[in-house]
Design brief:
This protein is 56% helix and 9% strand. The protein contains four helices and five strands. The protein has a five-stranded mixed beta sheet with strand order 2-1-5-3-4, with helices on one face.
């Protein structure tokens, strides 16, 4: 039996058989060339990188690259270490120089202090000696022998003055008559420099202003009473 020929008109029409007129749906404009070829470029680059990585691993170049990077890191670290050592050496030299300068300054200060102390000690010793000499010179010794010579011709005048000295504390006083030449005015004679203070005190006690050092006296201090 012959089959009937099926045509478009053989089917009952529905809503899809009467589509609307004009374009239906969203229509995009043409994209730029770079946007269209970018996926292909990315695929090519990834493939090239993968191929390079596979070649580096298989041929051993990957290990060489690692060794080169390690050598560069070691060189950088060595350079940094040398710089730090050089800086530390410079600081050490500077510190040594400062220490030497400080030591020299301390030595000079110590020497100056020693010289100053030595000079001060010497000056102090000299001052003490001078003070002792002045003290010895200025000491009044009322046990010193004193002779009162009467050159006035007034009887008992020398004894009166001797009593005045004894009253003031002198313990070795005697009165005597003149022998030999006499001075022109009343005077107190002393023989040694150590008796000067005592002679001055005797003169002050008797109201005598003239005090003289004379050699060849028979006693340390002689008072000559004149008119």
């Amino acid at each position: 039996m012959a089959r009937d020929k099926v045509t478009y008109e053989s089917y009952e029409q529905d809503l899809f058989d009467n589509p609307p007129k004009g374009p239906v749906g969203a229509h995009r404009g043409s994209r730029p060339l770079i946007t269209r070829i970018a996926p292909f470029i990315i695929v090519i680059l990834v493939a090239a990188l993968c191929g390079f990585a596979a070649w580096a691993v298989s041929s051993g170049e990957y290990q060489n690259l690692l060794n080169l990077k390690s050598a560069q890191s070691s060189t950088t670290a060595s350079t940094t270490t040398k710089s730090e050592k050089k800086s530390d050496t410079s600081k050490s030299d500077s510190s040594s120089s400062d220490s030497a300068s400080s030591s020299d300054a301390s030595s000079n200060t110590s020497d100056a202090s020693t010289d100053s102390d030595s000079n001060a000690s010497s000056d102090s010793s000299s001052g003490d000696q001078n003070t002792q000499q002045q003290t010895q010179t200025a000491t009044v010794n009322k046990a010193t022998q004193v002779r009162v010579v009467n050159g006035t011709g007034v009887s008992g005048y020398a004894g009166q003055k001797a009593d005045v000295l004894q009253t003031s504390g002198y313990t070795s006083v005697d009165a005597a008559n003149p022998t030999g030449s006499l001075p022109s005015s009343t005077v107190v004679w002393y023989q040694n420099e150590s008796d000067k203070a005592t002679a001055q005190d005797v003169a002050n006690t008797l109201g005598i202003s003239d005090v003289q050092q004379v050699q060849g006296l028979s006693v340390p201090i002689t008072v000559v009473l004149m008119n």
